[in-house]
């Protein structure tokens, strides 16, 4: 238990963290990788370059400080982060390294403002917060191991099929190299791949949503090739998968994880809204609900740049032809000559008012600007927050403008 004085000191730093949080966490990662370069085998390098990881960590530190007197309030956030930690094989011995480095970054950024009392209070608080994470993650590791077909750490999978879904998106069907059973998962969850492309000094880990309903003897992931664009480097792992991984290639995989999952206990109408490759968890949810809740009304809305970049269109059309409870809509930002769609440009409020039931459960995924727009439209439609669900590809961010 933390002393009342420690709680008061940590909470007094909330305004400072609000102002300097990202600077502190940016310094943290620089120090961490300088002193422990082996941890580059775990962290996503691209998220570091783009500032996504420091921003996400700053938000997590800020939340911990603000709720230090009632840490139970941040358990949902801890579980969300814990799923990613378990998927990346983060272990208890990593936490002291992180704590020492975080305190050092606070001293570097805050200077004289980081008094001995503040550093001592944060050291004590970090120990308690770390214990919360370690305890929750220990349960997650145990659950992953105890499931039928489950495992801890990395397991070798073989690419059984490689299917081009569009000009930029390809599906990979993965089966276990040992021929054994694979663990079940919830629609919306992801698996994590660890690869080391030729010429790379470190391993690269990437989370990929499972794009088919549970129950198959394989895992399917559907990956967009991230090309160089507007100064943003090409995606190392996505390009390696598209250009070099073939049928027979062996991949290291951790067990399914993630908190963005379909509520299968709800019988409300369901609206699934996706942009680009954000359709991957939506397809898993769609297949699952059609199979397990055949009476549930579903609206599936997908936005893509154009028809040539629209993945799984024929598959969704086939599902719609077989399931009258399913309504599908397509929006193309820049349709090509032969394309047909329900709307050109972007999903707007008027379109959503015409196509979805405001009493539905809403799930959406895609680029952040797309999700920010959808979230704003749903708020304008007065959809309650508990019926709005979304997933960030990468570190959690914010949809607030």
TrEMBL record:
<feature type="domain" description="FAD-binding FR-type">
    <location>
        <begin position="152"/>
        <end position="263"/>
    </location>
</feature>
<dbReference type="InterPro" id="IPR012292">
    <property type="entry name" value="Globin/Proto"/>
</dbReference>
<dbReference type="InterPro" id="IPR008333">
    <property type="entry name" value="Cbr1-like_FAD-bd_dom"/>
</dbReference>
<feature type="site" description="Influences the redox potential of the prosthetic heme and FAD groups">
    <location>
        <position position="391"/>
    </location>
</feature>
<feature type="active site" description="Charge relay system">
    <location>
        <position position="95"/>
    </location>
</feature>
<keyword id="KW-0521">NADP</keyword>
<dbReference type="GO" id="GO:0005344">
    <property type="term" value="F:oxygen carrier activity"/>
</dbReference>
<comment type="function">
    <text>Is involved in NO detoxification in an aerobic process, termed nitric oxide dioxygenase (NOD) reaction that utilizes O(2) and NAD(P)H to convert NO to nitrate, which protects the bacterium from various noxious nitrogen compounds. Therefore, plays a central role in the inducible response to nitrosative stress.</text>
</comment>
<dbReference type="InterPro" id="IPR023950">
    <property type="entry name" value="Hmp"/>
</dbReference>
<feature type="binding site">
    <location>
        <begin position="392"/>
        <end position="395"/>
    </location>
    <ligand>
        <name>FAD</name>
    </ligand>
</feature>
<dbReference type="GO" id="GO:0046872">
    <property type="term" value="F:metal ion binding"/>
</dbReference>
<feature type="binding site">
    <location>
        <begin position="276"/>
        <end position="281"/>
    </location>
    <ligand>
        <name>NADP(+)</name>
    </ligand>
</feature>
<feature type="region of interest" description="Reductase">
    <location>
        <begin position="149"/>
        <end position="401"/>
    </location>
</feature>
<dbReference type="GO" id="GO:0071500">
    <property type="term" value="P:cellular response to nitrosative stress"/>
</dbReference>
<feature type="domain" description="Globin">
    <location>
        <begin position="1"/>
        <end position="138"/>
    </location>
</feature>
<dbReference type="GO" id="GO:0020037">
    <property type="term" value="F:heme binding"/>
</dbReference>
<keyword id="KW-0813">Transport</keyword>
<keyword id="KW-0349">Heme</keyword>
<feature type="active site" description="Charge relay system">
    <location>
        <position position="137"/>
    </location>
</feature>
<keyword id="KW-0408">Iron</keyword>
<comment type="similarity">
    <text>In the C-terminal section; belongs to the flavoprotein pyridine nucleotide cytochrome reductase family.</text>
</comment>
<dbReference type="InterPro" id="IPR039261">
    <property type="entry name" value="FNR_nucleotide-bd"/>
</dbReference>
<dbReference type="InterPro" id="IPR017938">
    <property type="entry name" value="Riboflavin_synthase-like_b-brl"/>
</dbReference>
<dbReference type="InterPro" id="IPR001709">
    <property type="entry name" value="Flavoprot_Pyr_Nucl_cyt_Rdtase"/>
</dbReference>
<comment type="similarity">
    <text>Belongs to the globin family. Two-domain flavohemoproteins subfamily.</text>
</comment>
<feature type="binding site" description="proximal binding residue">
    <location>
        <position position="85"/>
    </location>
    <ligand>
        <name>heme b</name>
    </ligand>
</feature>
<dbReference type="InterPro" id="IPR017927">
    <property type="entry name" value="FAD-bd_FR_type"/>
</dbReference>
<dbReference type="GO" id="GO:0009636">
    <property type="term" value="P:response to toxic substance"/>
</dbReference>
<keyword id="KW-0479">Metal-binding</keyword>
<dbReference type="GO" id="GO:0008941">
    <property type="term" value="F:nitric oxide dioxygenase NAD(P)H activity"/>
</dbReference>
<keyword id="KW-0216">Detoxification</keyword>
<dbReference type="Pfam" id="PF00042">
    <property type="entry name" value="Globin"/>
</dbReference>
<dbReference type="GO" id="GO:0046210">
    <property type="term" value="P:nitric oxide catabolic process"/>
</dbReference>
<dbReference type="GO" id="GO:0071949">
    <property type="term" value="F:FAD binding"/>
</dbReference>
<keyword id="KW-0274">FAD</keyword>
<keyword id="KW-0560">Oxidoreductase</keyword>
<dbReference type="Pfam" id="PF00970">
    <property type="entry name" value="FAD_binding_6"/>
</dbReference>
<keyword id="KW-0520">NAD</keyword>
<feature type="binding site">
    <location>
        <position position="190"/>
    </location>
    <ligand>
        <name>FAD</name>
    </ligand>
</feature>
<dbReference type="InterPro" id="IPR001433">
    <property type="entry name" value="OxRdtase_FAD/NAD-bd"/>
</dbReference>
<feature type="site" description="Involved in heme-bound ligand stabilization and O-O bond activation">
    <location>
        <position position="29"/>
    </location>
</feature>
<dbReference type="Pfam" id="PF00175">
    <property type="entry name" value="NAD_binding_1"/>
</dbReference>
């Amino acid at each position: 238990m933390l002393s009342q004085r420690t709680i008061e000191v940590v909470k007094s730093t909330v305004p400072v963290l609000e102002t300097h949080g990202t600077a502190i966490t940016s310094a943290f990662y620089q120090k961490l990788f300088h002193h422990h370069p082996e941890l580059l085998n775990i962290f996503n390098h691209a998220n570091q370059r783009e500032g996504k990881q420091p921003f996400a960590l700053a938000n997590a530190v800020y939340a911990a400080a603000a709720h230090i007197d009632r840490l139970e309030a941040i358990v949902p956030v801890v579980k969300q982060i814990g799923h990613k930690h378990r998927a990346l094989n983060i272990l208890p011995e990593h936490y002291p390294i992180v704590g020492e480095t975080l305190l050092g970054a606070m001293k570097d950024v805050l200077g004289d403002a980081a008094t001995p009392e503040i550093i001592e209070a944060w050291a004590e608080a970090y120990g308690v917060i770390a214990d919360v994470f370690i305890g929750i993650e220990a349960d997650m590791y145990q659950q992953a191991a105890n499931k039928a077909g489950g495992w801890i750490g990395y397991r070798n999978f073989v690419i059984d099929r490689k299917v081009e879904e569009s000009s930029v998106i390809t599906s990979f069907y993965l089966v276990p190299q040992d021929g054994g059973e694979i663990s079940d998962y919830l629609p919306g969850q992801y698996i994590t791949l660890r690869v080391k492309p030729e010429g790379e000094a470190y391993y690269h880990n990437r989370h990929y949503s499972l794009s088919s309903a549970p129950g198959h003897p394989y895992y399917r992931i559907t990956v967009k090739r991230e090309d160089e664009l507007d100064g943003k480097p090409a995606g190392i792992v996505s390009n390696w998968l598209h250009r070099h991984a073939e049928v027979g290639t062996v991949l290291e995989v951790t067990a399914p994880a993630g908190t963005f999952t379909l509520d299968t206990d709800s019988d409300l109408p369901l609206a699934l809204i996706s942009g680009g490759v954000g359709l991957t968890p939506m397809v898993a949810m769609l297949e699952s609900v059609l199979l397990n809740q055949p009476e549930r009304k579903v609206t599936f809305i997908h936005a893509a740049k154009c028809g040539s970049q629209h993945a799984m269109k024929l598959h969704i059309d086939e599902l719609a032809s077989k399931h009258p409870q399913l309504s599908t809509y397509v929006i193309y930002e820049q349709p090509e000559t032969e394309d047909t769609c329900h709307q050109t440009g972007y999903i707007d409020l008027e379109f959503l008012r015409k196509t979805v039931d405001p009493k539905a459960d809403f799930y959406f995924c895609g680029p952040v600007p797309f999700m920010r727009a959808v979230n704003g439209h749903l708020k304008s439609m007065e959809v309650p927050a508990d019926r709005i669900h979304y997933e960030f590809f990468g570190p959690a961010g914010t949809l607030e403008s």
